[in-house]
Design brief:
seven-stranded mixed β-sheet, 315 residues, alpha+beta, 9 helices, five-stranded antiparallel β-sheet, XRE family transcriptional regulator
Length: 315
Amino acid sequence: MDAERVPFEELADALIEALEDASAALSRVLETGGWPQKVLANRKVADQGTVSKWLSGGEQLSKGNKLPGADVMHKIIKALDLSSAQAEELLALGRRIDALRERMQAMERAWRIRASNRYAARARESAFAMGPAGTARGVTGEERAAPWRKKAVLFGASGAAAIAVSWVIWQLWPPTGKPSVPTALSGAAVSVIASPTSAPPDVVPEYGMHLVTKSMAVRLPSRSWTQNASGDIEIWENKTCPPGVAAYWVALRPKGETVRFACNSWQYHKWTGVPAGTHFLDAWKADDGLAITGESVVRSSVPIIEHPKSPAPSP
């Protein structure tokens, strides 16, 4: 979608969600590592006041600080020596923030003031918990993100039941704020994250295939293949996603694990010990009305026989 064809308010909402997600992700990183906020100031990433603003989510739009884009996330990752999974999440969020900021800046010179006003209006509409004079109460990044993710409001339930139901809802709600495909449909819980990589090798006939995704709005199976012996399946993915979409999922069917792939860069994963039989790849993303495009390269350690894409075997 072109910037001119997307209402400014929708881009502002997407940026607010991205800032809330970044706040929640950074809070998790600090909590997991047992670090106080001042660790980023001590390690020369930013002063403590700026770090506090990053942790305030969408509220920081009115503060005038530099938003936590990709360059900020790079500094945080380097300073804290984060794991690849944590680094991938922060970088994806940083790129998402940069892309939305650039589109809004191209639409309107005073984009930040207008986005800040949008945040304030949405906060009032959703009864966002605010203190005197519009200052935010002491809540966590996860709590700040809740209104934007449209989590269910539970009425008349006991405390224990409310917590249990809220946990289930949270498990089915992805960081982008859009409903995901439940893990029950994926064939396995999503516990694996693809690794960043360089461009893939050339496709070797009978040992791999090149796949092109022209438009995937929700779900797309690949053409299937048959292998007569157990072997390893490698995949290189590079999908271009619109602002607001940070990741998608790929599963090896019928029994392979589900893997989360980041958008807008080459990503790699390897399924080891894939048994003989007929297999295909199942890819999907949140049902948010947006489409992603790109390409994939599949390589096998044993000979494979490709089949027409349709009909695909059942999961």
